[in-house]
User: Fold this.
Amino acid sequence: MFLMHVPAFLCLPDDLVIFKHSRIIQEVIRKWKFLEQLCLGGNIKKIRSLFMFCEHRRRLSEHFKALLALGSWDKRENLAPILVQISEHCKHFTGLKIVDASVEELEAYTIVESLPNLKQLCAIESYLKRDSLIKILRDCKNLELLDVRNSEGFDEGDDEISKLASHIEFLCEGSYSLNSRSSFNFSYRLLFLSELKMEGRVARSTRRPAERHQENN
Assistant:
């Protein structure tokens, strides 16, 4: 009998918020029953760098913007449903890495309830509420590694969190609780989309009036 090897690790680095094709991840998960580890997001800074320094970026911007979900800004619309699909279809799942995520009450509850066998969780450069982090530490009984470096929402020197995480490998360097500071990746996302919109306005202003009229109609 011929057995096809199915990879147990899946990496989808495109930003979960701004790209339309991120909406199909749930469909992919449903068909990946042997999935054990999943990595989501993290390439927004690289994409911006490559795009903005491209000499043909003005000509490419309209094609690139067609890939974007400019009306969606809430990663919670995508993350929690993905975790539910993992729970239903991926019974051997043990590792999740998310970059530039928003982990609040809903996400923490979904992680705890949907991923009971989770051993490794990375949520770096993310917004992670203190109460959500405490819930994950208390209720993810099989957790061995938690990496939340450079995240916002809790302080890396929090004594209660340190005690709760004393039995696992816990990485939290660079995390802070000041709400006035913006997530580094989220700032890059805002900056990138602002630049794309500006490119579109500049490109449109250089067209002939007849071309602009045709576009509006």
Residues 9-177+184-203 form a domain with the Leucine-rich repeat, LRR (right-handed beta-alpha superhelix) fold (CATH 3.80.10).
